[in-house]
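User: Assemble these into one structure.

Assistant: Restating your components, then the assembled model:
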Amino acid sequence: MKKRVLSVALTAAMVASMATVPAITVQAADDELIVVGYAQVGAESDWRTANTESFKSTFTEENGYKLIFDDAQQKQENQIKAIRSFIQQDVDYIVVAPVVETGWETVLEEAKEAGIPVILSDRQMQVSDDSLYECWVGGNFIKEGETAGQWVADYLEEKGRGEEEINMVTIQGTIGASAQVGRTEGFGNIVAQHENWKMLDMQSGEFTQAKGQEVMESFLKSYDDIDVVICENDNEAFGAIDAIKAAGKTCGPEGDIIVISFDSVKAAFEAMIAGDLNATFECNPLHGPRVDEIIKKLEAGEEVEKIQYVDEAYFDTSMDLEAILAERAY
Amino acid sequence: MSGSKAVKVKKKIDGNAFLLLITIVLFFVMYIAGVVIFNEQGFGKVQNFLNLFISNAGLIVIAAGMTVVMITGGIDISVGSVVALTCMLLAWMMELKGIGAVPATLLVLVMGVVFGLVQGFLVAYLNIQPFIVTLAGMFFARGMTAIVSTEMISISNETFLSWAKFKIYFPFGGYLNRKGVMIYPYIYPSVVIALIILVLVFVMLKFTKFGRSIYAVGGNEQSALMMGLNVRRTKLKAYVLSSTLCGLGGFLFCLNTCAGFVEQAKGLEMDAIASSVIGGTLLTGGVGNVFGSLFGVLIKGTIEAFITFQGTLSSWWTRITIAALLCFFIVLQSIFAAVKEKNKH
């Protein structure tokens, strides 16, 4: 038995040594493609899946790329392994959407030593040395908040309520999350420009529908004249809409209360079509094309900006939502 | 002549050693297959092989501890949570309490010992099922991690980072990468520590009285007791050893990730158990070898490397492949056990 096992191992070894020769010739064709390794967080949400799809559809062989994709299943240690593997595979660029913000020093140092530029997507990293990564691509949450504030101002103006006393409440995201911090700050900037706007209360709905509903119920009990509800993601807005309806009030473009939200998932479009939601502000997951642009610049030897925001749009009930919804990736 | 030789070989290789042999051969076959399939992508590089050890240094140490506990017929499912707690405590002590890297490391090792003492006492002296005790330990350690901090803590302690970044370069086997950088293979000290621990545990199991008692207790507790062995103390020591190695493994894990947060090392206990079983350790106790567990870890690492090199497969295939391997080894084990039983009669 032992002999047989040994002979199997030996044959395998022989096959291995023979296979090395023809494999070298394959390399030539591969060389023209730019090899990109993408260490993705996982597939936990529609947003994430759309983000992955964006990379897969951008970094194709037709576009001159070879993409090596790794799903870390929400584990940092898996991402560290993936980055090490990318270095061994001699990729030209490493893109990481970090699971967590910390603990990247060692492995990024290895990438730097190998001379492979690292591009961050979506979440930032806390590292002692900025030169460990080339740049970061992601959404600008402050700008999202400001866009939302500006939209509310324009909308009120249009309705002839520009000078009216406006009461607002905010259902915040999970406190401390960068989306919560940025969106609260951005919207706050616009509130500060309008003396007739009054932010009555802000409470966290933890980005969930159930908690959003709970918070809205308590707002409705405490304040009887709410004009605008700002929900820091779509799910909270769905909960808030339920609470408003249960309290016998109406919302949406035809109702008493203006409801706006962030992220722009498909269900938000359905809520707008149903007339419950006024507007939703996008958090764009389609980072692929922007990363492609950055890599092209780096290939040409140009310098790139350290922080790169993706373009983000908003959608309200004045648009042809059915048509947009049909084309949405997420 | 040839007949007597065959008998000799047969005597040397019993069922358990054969299982170990299969594991080792399987690893090499898989690795060579990887080199063949992904040759142009650099699977055959020395560094790729070393990365198996670098990324799994913590797991190698933890699996060694797990193997010892499993040989006694027990199990320790608290290890993943203890690793998370270790990392969190290290990060918390160094970043928020201003404790130096050396005392912080020593403190987490002591924490591991204490954790093992409590679990071992409950299992050995109060005769509670190890699964239940360590399940409680698992919840406790994960809970404590969240109590210390629900926020992620990044380690920026200079001494600790200098340990984490310290590379030991090999003077040979370098290659020029596509960017024209000459790269020599390297390992981190964590790999050296892990391998030293592995050898120590191996020697302890093979050549010390404590080691032999562990096999005796796991093989048949009743006979071990009648032979005059202190079964309870042996079990207690096994759990202390496991948790201590877990503390040390957590430290090595932390050198790799340089951060503490609640979700860290989730499911690591299952990786350790799977590695031990693939390495030939029987869940019923009495049989096992830490080198087998090392190869179990390396097989897991190789499957992961396969998935990343392939580049389009879902990484969940790692789990599916390990599940298939586990089934394969468990079936083999029970076939061997059945054959053994038959030969007795």
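Chain B touches chain A through 61 residues (CB under 8 Å).
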